[in-house]
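re: ur question from earlier - yeah i can do the single chain one, its not a big deal. heres the input i used so u can compare w yours
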Amino acid sequence: MLPFTLDVGILSTYVNQVIKQIRKKNEIRNITEKH
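and the output i got, formated as tokens:
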């Protein structure tokens, strides 16, 4: 059970990092489109 929860924690943090990167790319796109 412990390794499973550990994997889920690593997976969730990885997913969060990916989402943050996608949001940053979207923000940069919005800024470039406005200017």
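The longest helix spans residues 2-34. not sure if urs matches, ping me
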